[in-house]
Amino acid sequence: MTSNPQAAAGEPNPLRALTLDRLRCRTSMKWRTYSEDVLPVWVAEMDVPLAAAVVRAVTDALALGDTGYPAGSAYAEALAAFAEKRWGWDGLAVHRTRIVPDVMLGVVEMLRLVTGPGDPVVLNPPVYPPFFQFVAHMDRQVVEAPLGADLRLDLGALEDAFRRAVAGGRRAAYLLCSPHNPTGTVHTAAELAAVAALAERYGVRVVADEIYAPVVAAGTAFVPYLSVPGGERGLSLMSASKAWNLAGLKAALAVAGPASAADLARLPEEVGHGPSHVGVIAHTAALRAGTAWLDALLTGLDDNRRLLTGLLAEQLPAVAYRPGEATYLAWLDCRELGLGDDPASVFLDRGRVALSPGIDFGTGGAGHVRLNFATSPEVITEAVRRMAAALG
User: Fold this and answer.
1) In the prediction, which pLDDT does 306 show?
2) Counting Cβ atoms within 10 Å, is residue 292 exposed (0-12), middle (13-18) or buried (19+)?
3) By three-state DSSP, how is residue 2 classified?
4) How far is it, in rounded angstroms, from Cα 305 to Cα 328?
């Protein structure tokens, strides 16, 4: 099972392609939330040019005026081929997929299919903040099963949460973040099979956010939840968004296991009107023809993980950091610095560097920050320098 092949010869590291001055010309959230004296290493936008295959596909669509409504199964076919080649998984059936606006809105639609108002949804904090926000907004109840001290799934805590969630005969769902954001943990096949067994025992429906699936470190194998024994009743959300920096080109896929096809078939037809047709074109091109670019990116991210580890050891040795097996997000434990529950506010005020506050990620997030290292080595170096200077 291939997780991170060597970058194709001649494909440049996209993380080294853009200068800071050029990046500051962007108008997206990362570059417009803070003033220009702040170095932004927070939200999950990468500092890269787009893959050439994506640029060509989008440019051709615009030149043709192909900007109508999405149609067809090209995106699902591209993802199925990618999954088989990349993860050795041939179980992604195109007829059991539906296009959705993006992964989080897809999560909401999947939870609507398997739960009702007031029903519990189990989460593993610290976890991606919109999980809490969207679950609360759709009138579901959050039940927590915190990660263990090793930042992996705590199956005992998960079983306890499942037991509480279904008490009184309630329907319940489990929103699995795989790979996990913010820790970068990649769940093993054994862990996921254990999750599926618990879900079956307690009648909990699993909805897996697998948006970071293509972004894994060298030597690590991503395992799709739907591929493990017992995962047939699961529902998954996948996208090329994080791996190819396409958040502004909205499109994702909901994927059903064989035993949940009937659930996905109940998805309202109008949900498929939400994705951008140009987004579908871009994501399809990325999966079909952007893999050499992705490999160059993954190699660059591996280099950046090592760089960040060394810089923290030299300049901020009190910060605890376990390099994740996936994503381009570093979960930094700053509790030994004595900066309180929200060290991100101190780094911003004193160091003029923006990180994601750990408290936003729920239980276990106090005293932590999340740093996005999908940028140039120079920016990473400057970010750590500013963090260290903030302690002076």
Assistant:
1) 98
2) middle
3) coil
4) 8
Distance in angstroms (rounded) separating the CA atoms of residues 19 and 26: 12
- pTM for the complete prediction? 0.96
Residue 8 confidence (pLDDT) above 80: no
C-beta neighbour count of 141 within 10 angstroms: 16
Burial class (CB in 10 A: 0-12, 13-18, 19+), 35: exposed
H/E stretch holding 254 reads: strand 252-256
Backbone φ and ψ of 68, nearest 5°: -90, -140
Q: What does the mean pLDDT of the chain come to?
A: 96
Within 8 A by CB and 6+ apart from 270, the residues are none
Q: Where are the alpha helices (DSSP H) in 124-255?
A: 129-137, 155-165, 189-202, 241-244
75 vs 26, 139, 217, 277, 283, CA distance in Å? 28, 31, 25, 11, 7
Query: Using a CB cutoff of 8 Å and minimum separation of 24, what contacts does 287-292 make?
Result: 287/75, 287/78, 287/79, 287/81, 287/82, 287/240, 288/53, 288/78, 288/81, 288/82, 289/51, 289/53, 290/51, 290/53, 290/54, 290/240, 290/244, 291/82, 291/86, 292/7, 292/8, 292/11
- Residue pair 109/267 in contact by the 8 Å Cβ criterion: yes
How far from 68 is each of 28, 65, 128, CA to CA, in Å? 24, 8, 32
Are the C-beta atoms of residues 239 and 90 closer than 8 Å to each other? no
Q: What is the DSSP string of 200-212?
A: HHHTPEEEEE-TT
Q: Judge contact between 331 and 368, C-beta under 8 A.
A: yes
Cα 358 to Cα 143, 155, 383: the distances in Å are: 19, 23, 17
Report d(CA 146, CA 168) in Å as an integer.
23
Residue type, 151: L
Which residue reads 């179980």 in tokens?
91
182-186: average pLDDT:
98
**Angstrom distance (rounded) from CA 84 to CA 2:** 10
- Give the percent of the chain with pLDDT over 90: 97
**Residue 6 clears pLDDT 70, i.e. is over it:** no
Neighbours of 36 (CB within 10 A): 8
Q: What pLDDT does 9 receive?
A: 54
- The type of residue at 345 is S
What pLDDT digit, counting tens, does each position of 299-335 carry? 999 999 999 999 999 999 999 999 999 999 999 999 9
